[in-house]
Specification:
2 copies of one chain form a homodimer. By secondary structure, chain A is an alpha+beta fold. Chain A folds into 2 domains: 14-88 and 126-305, BirA Bifunctional Protein, domain 2 (2-Layer Sandwich), CATH 3.30.930; 90-123, no CATH class. The first copy, chain A, has 11 helices and 14 strands. In chain A, helix 2 (38-55) crosses helix 10. The longest helix of chain A has 21 residues, at 179-199. Chain A is globular and about 60 Å long. Chain A starts with a helix and ends with a helix. At the A-B interface, strand 2, strand 3, strand 4, helix 3 and strand 5 of A face strand 2, strand 3, strand 4, helix 3 and strand 5 of B. Strand 2 of chain A pairs antiparallel with strand 3 of chain B.
C-alpha cells in the first residue's frame, strides 16, 4: 500500500507540469498560486458564460463583490467555528516612521516582518455567496430572493495539486426563501448541472458529500451533513483518474444563515438558504484534462458549447 | 474657507448615494467595499474590452493572476519601503482544538480574535503588474517583453468616497526592455489613452503626478518622481467636479524593478520597466457621472464604443 501515495503524486504532476510547460499555468513560487495563460483564462470565461446561460431562466439578481468581506459579517457567519483552518484575514501596517524603520530592518534581515500589521475590517471571501446573506437581513418578499454571484475565494490549503488553489473563482446562484421553495429550487438545478457537464463532455459522478470541518468535533458535523444529504457534489477527474475532485456543489444550509443574519420569510419564519456553486478553475482544469491541452483538437460539440 | 470641506463632502455623497439607490453600488458596511450591480459590472467589463482593443496591436502576452502575491516577492519589490500604509497581508489560523476554543470565545465576546492568525506566504496584490516582475528574472529577449494583466488590487485606505475602493480591478500593460524601447513604448500609449477617454466622451486632463509615498521621506521621493516626469495621470471628475481623480496612469519605473528582480536586457544591462494602468471601477464611475445612471440615455457614440 505504501506505493499508492507516490503513484498518485506522479499522475498529479503530469497534468500540472504539462500545463506549466504550455504556459496554461504559470508558477509563482507559492504552492496553489498560479498565473493563468490566455487559453486557460479564455476557456474559464467561456465556461462561466455557459453556466450563465443555464442560470438565465431563473432571472437571478446579478451582483459582483470584490474578494473581501466585512470582518464582522464573517465572524457572524459561523465560518470560524467550522473552518478556521481555511480562513484568511487581511492585516495592514499601522505605525510611525520609527515603526516603519523597524519593519524595513526586519525585511532586510529576512526576519518576520508582520509585527506591525494588525487585523483590518476585512477578511478574504471564503465562498462567493458569503457577501449575500448580510444583505438579506429582514423580511424577504413572498417569492424569496435569488442572487447570481461570482468572486475570487480564498482557502488556506497550500498544495502542489493544481486543483487545490489558494484563490480561485466561484460562480454561484444563491436562493433564500421558505424551506419548500428552497429545496425545490435546489432540485431544479440537478438536471441543469447534468446538462452543463454533458455539454462539456466530462466524465462526472454526483455524490453526497460533506465539508472539511475542523477538529475533533468536525467528524460528527460531517456525518450529520451526509446523513441529511445537505451537500451534493459533482466530481470529475482533474489531477488523477483515480481520485476525482468536486467541481460543482449544491448545498442546502437549512436555517444556518437565516438564523445568523436574521433573514425572515414573508410569513416571519426563519428563512432557509441554498446555493449552487461552480468552481471555475477546477471545471477548466477538468476540461483540459478530458479533452487535451490543444483547444483546436476539442470535439465540435464542446467547442460549440463554449462558442469556440 | 471652512465651508469648502463639507461642500465637497456633500457632492461626494450625491453620486454614491444615487448609485446606491439605483443598486449600481451595494453597501457592505465597510467604507470602500461595495457590491456592484449588473449595469455597473457590465459597463466595467465593456470598458475593459474597449481598452483591450486599443492594446491589441502590441500583441502583449495575456496572463491573469489571482489577487494574491508571493510574500517574498512583495518584500523584494520595495513596496514596503514606499507604501507600507497601503499594503494588505494575508493571515491564517494556526492552532489546536484548544486554541480554536479560545478563538471562538473571543468571537462570542466581541473581542479581537486575530491572536492565532500568523502571516501566510501571500499578501494582497497592490497593483496588477506586481506578479509580472519576478517572472522576468534573468535575460530578456532582444525585443524585451510585454504583458497584459488584469487583477483585483488592494489598498488599505478606507474612505467614504466611491472612487477610493479598498479592492478594485486594474487592467495593465507592462513593458520590460532597454530604457529607449521602454520610454518609446510609454510614449506610444499617450495617443491611445487619449482615444480611449475620447471614445468614452470623458472630460479629462493629463498631469505629471506622484505616488502617495509614506512618511517624512516620502515628500522628497514624490518631488523627485514629479521632477523626472516618471508618472503621468489622466484625471476625470468622479465624486466631485472640483476635485478630479486619477483613472489611468502611465508609469516609468526606470531600473527599480529590474534591479530588485535581476531583470537584464539582451545585452546584460539592468532592464527598465514601464506600465500603463487603467482603474476599471474608477473609469466606470467616471462614465456614470459624466453620462448619467441610465445607460439607455447615453450618447450613441459612447454606446457604440461600449458595444451597447
Amino acid at each position: 500500500m505504501a506505493s499508492t501515495q507516490p503513484a498518485v503524486a506522479v499522475i498529479d504532476d503530469a497534468l500540472r507540469d504539462d500545463m506549466l510547460r504550455e504556459r496554461l499555468l504559470i508558477a509563482t513560487g507559492v504552492p496553489g498560486v498560479y498565473g493563468l495563460g490566455a487559453a486557460f483564462e479564455d476557456t474559464l470565461l467561456r465556461i462561466d458564460r455557459l453556466i450563465g446561460r443555464f442560470g438565465a431562466d431563473d432571472h437571478a439578481e446579478l451582483v459582483r463583490f470584490p474578494p473581501i468581506l466585512n470582518r464582522r459579517h464573517f465572524a457572524q457567519s459561523g465560518y470560524l467555528a467550522s473552518f478556521p483552518h481555511l480562513a484568511g484575514t487581511v492585516h495592514s501596517f499601522e505605525g510611525t516612521d520609527r515603526v516603519h524603520s523597524e519593519l524595513l530592518r526586519a525585511v532586510a534581515q529576512g526576519q518576520d516582518w508582520s509585527a506591525a500589521f494588525p487585523a483590518t475590517d476585512v477578511v478574504l471571501t471564503p465562498a462567493a455567496c458569503y457577501p449575500v446573506y448580510p444583505l438579506l437581513a429582514g423580511r424577504l418578499p413572498a417569492s424569496g430572493r435569488l442572487f447570481d454571484v461570482m468572486s475570487y475565494c480564498f482557502r488556506h490549503e497550500p498544495s502542489e495539486r493544481a486543483e487545490r488553489m489558494q484563490m480561485f473563482r466561484m460562480r454561484e446562484f444563491v436562493r433564500a426563501a421558505d424551506p419548500e421553495t428552497v429545496m425545490a429550487w435546489r432540485e431544479s438545478w440537478l438536471p441543469k448541472v447534468s446538462q452543463i457537464v454533458e455539454a462539456l463532455q466530462l466524465d462526472t459522478r454526483a455524490d453526497v458529500a460533506s465539508d472539511p470541518f475542523f477538529g475533533r468535533g468536525g467528524v460528527l458535523l460531517a456525518e450529520s451533513q451526509r446523513d441529511q444529504r445537505l451537500k451534493i457534489e459533482v466530481l470529475a477527474p482533474v489531477s488523477s483518474d483515480e481520485c476525482s475532485t468536486a467541481i460543482i456543489s449544491l448545498n442546502y444550509h437549512q436555517d444556518h444563515f437565516g438564523e445568523r443574519f436574521a433573514i425572515e420569510t414573508a410569513h416571519g419564519a426563519v428563512a432557509h438558504t441554498s446555493c449552487v456553486g461552480f468552481g471555475l478553475e477546477r471545471m477548466t482544469l477538468a476540461v483540459f484534462r478530458r479533452h487535451g491541452l490543444d483547444r483546436a483538437q476539442w470535439t465540435d460539440a464542446v467547442r460549440e458549447a463554449l462558442d469556440l
